[in-house]
Every structure is written in C-alpha cells, then in structure tokens.
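The protein record filed here.
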Amino acid sequence: MKPVSCHSSALLTEDELRVFLERYRKENWHGIQTPEWQARIVGGILHDDGEAVFRDLAAAWEIPEHATVLDVGSGVGTFVLACRRRGLHAFGIEPDRIGQAGSITSIQIAKRRMENAAFAVALGEQLPFRDESFDLVTMNQVIEHVSDQAVVLREAARVLKPGGAIYVACPNYLRFYEPHYKIFWLPLLPKFLGRLYLRARGRNPVLLNQIIYTTNARLRRLTGNLGSDFMTRDMHRDRFLQKSKQRAFLSFRARAVNRMMQWSWIGSWISSAALWFLRCTEGGCEMLVVRKS
C-alpha cells in the first residue's frame, strides 16, 4: 500500500486507518501493553460503531433532537463520528498525552476520519467553549487520566446547558486488575510499589504516572460537589436495581441474592450489602450527572 501522511486532508480508507492505528499503538503504548493486546484493541476500534454510550444512556436520559455534544478525551474520534451519523452537532477535544507521546497522535487520526472540522487539541481543565454550550458532555475512560478531576468536572458543568447531562465512565480501581496494562493489580496499590511491580514484569511505568486511582465512591463525591443544580445517577446501581425488580439475573448466585433481597425482615440489609459489593467489584464506574432545567 502506498504510504500516506497523517497531515493529509484526504479521508482515511479502512486499510489506511488500520495502518495508522497500529503505528499509533506501537509508538505510544510500547512497553505498556503487549503486542497481542494492542492488536486486539486495534481490531476493536475498527469494529466499534460508537453506539455503546447511546445504548447506556437510553434507559437513563433522552438525548434532545439535534443536540450539541462534547466528547472530552475523544481519542480517534469514534464517538464523535457516531454522533454525526445521528445528525448531532458533536465535537471532540484531546490532549493526546497518553503513553509515550509518539510521532503520530490520536487527534491526527480523528481529523482524517471526517470531512468537517470537529476536533481540537485542548485540556478538560480549560475547555475552549462558552458557558452553557452543550446538551451532552461525555468523558468515556478519560477522568482517570486528567490532572485535576474536580476542575475537569466543573468545566464540564460550566459548558452544560440547563437540562443537559454529563456522562462519565472510568475503571474502578478497587478491582484486582489494571485495565491499561491488562495485568493483575492490587486495589489502590501505592504508586511506588506499582512502578517496581511493572518494571519487574518488563513494563514501562510511564502511564501509571498519568493515572488517578478512581473508585465509585470517589466519582460520586466529585460529582456531588458540583452543587444542588446537579443530580448524579449511578448507572450501574440503577441497572442492578432494575434487574432486581424484573428478576432478570442469569446466574444462580445473583438470583439467590435477589430472592433474599425480597425478605421483609432482612431484605434491606441484603440489598445494601449487594450494592456495596457491586461498587467494590464492578469493573468500572458509570455516572450520569443531569443539570436541572
């Protein structure tokens, strides 16, 4: 295939997109993820239609027709593309400081995936937009990478219209797993021990230095600090309670717990314990923050 420049204005073909994604992952994630994991992630991006966030939002909040959307940490632009296909006015910002800062950036790839300008290099701590500009602000697997989570959320709240929503999803660091390095990890492992552990496994600890350990409780506290004009919904909790109400659990253990939750004399305690267990073991945190109209 003829070499293509990431600075060209022509839209990428699927084959060119694969080449750029492979190059981007190799340069920025070398020593962080294994080549096998990088190949899997590239394949996932190529087959991702960007609709997952819409599916998650469907049961919790209705996106206005012709909504304006800001994707903070837009990566290679998959979600912004999905929004544009739906007729939404979507834009993305990306600092692209993840990993080792290779010669090609994710925002360069994103700009080659659509004709109209939709992406800008910017930080979540300093959004270059006017107050009340967007109906929906998304931060999908981003909040754990920023420098100041509280400031980023305040900026998202500032640019949000009344009645609008902020969608935040991130890993839960109470699990025995590190989702970026794709390895076993002790919950909230001190960073200095984490760096030693990564080096012992032949990994580059550069990304660990860019991560803020985030948990369900921390994210709820941060969103709760936005003030009385904002209401936070824990979407994992809501889905669990909905399944409980519908008795839609598939596993035997979950069905047994659900039956105990119905007992009048101890059901509330079982329910509280189940929700606590969910917050500690769920692979990620997922919050919807709605601004009152």
The CA atoms of residues 125 and 152 lie 5 Å apart. DSSP finds eleven helices and seven strands in the chain. The first strand starts at residue 68 and ends at 72.
